[in-house]
Amino acid sequence: MRGRCTRYLQRFRGLVRPAVAPDSPEGGTVTSDEQRSVIAEMERAYPGHPRVADLPTIVQENIRAVARELTAEDAPRVPAACADPAR
Fold this sequence. Notes:
51% helix, 3 helices, mainly alpha
């Protein structure tokens, strides 16, 4: 289960990362189109994945939180479970 959770988090962060790249449409702000794209890809990759909270906007809140993390992260200090495997 731990490996699956790690892959899930890495995939999620990997999808949010380009949305906060300096050359993305809104720079460090994730647009609603980018949010919809992340959500659709996560639902496709992890159908039926349980939500951790019963909040209609939990995925959008998670996207915003990860976006803030990514724009402020210090790469050498990122926990291995959250690191971008491509780096």
